[in-house]
Amino acid sequence: MVKNMAIEKVKAFFKQFDLDNKILEFPVSSATVALAAQALGCEEKQIAKTLSFLVNEVPVLIVAAGDTKIDNPKFKAQFHQKAAMIPADRVEGLVGHAVGGVCPFAIRDGVQVYLDKSLKRFQTVFPACGSANSAIELTIPELEKFSNYCAWVDVCKGWE
Predict the structure, then answer these.
(1) What pLDDT, in 10s, does the model give residues 123-160?
(2) DSSP element (H, E) containing 153
(3) Is 65 helix (H, G, I), strand (E, B) or coil?
(4) Which residues sit opposite 70 in a β-bridge?
């Protein structure tokens, strides 16, 4: 029930831009990069995964390409502390979406969003939409606009 509420919030968010009809819902799980790529029929690297961290007790979302991993030294250089993911049981309360559907849209106030430069190699990417079986295809400028991001960062490895 809660996951449905999250996707409804994301649909309402995109409705104001007349883009709610672009949200894709699948009969299968898209909760992981591999499952999302399979559901969409695209490469894993095109999935815009959203990772949740606590930085000085503030929830921070990093949206990155599906073929990346967080580079701890780069993360520490950017945020001046060690990367500490939000425990799974706290993500929904802090961010507004449960693990598997975390996305940078229709999130709680105070959550900061950063886009990793690993996404810049693509024309379009596929972030989740608040549930474990949804996604939307967005261009990079659309992702910038709708995520209300703070900045582009370079905190991932494995894709160069």
Answers:
(1) 999 999 999 999 999 999 999 999 999 999 999 999 98
(2) strand 151-153
(3) strand
(4) 156
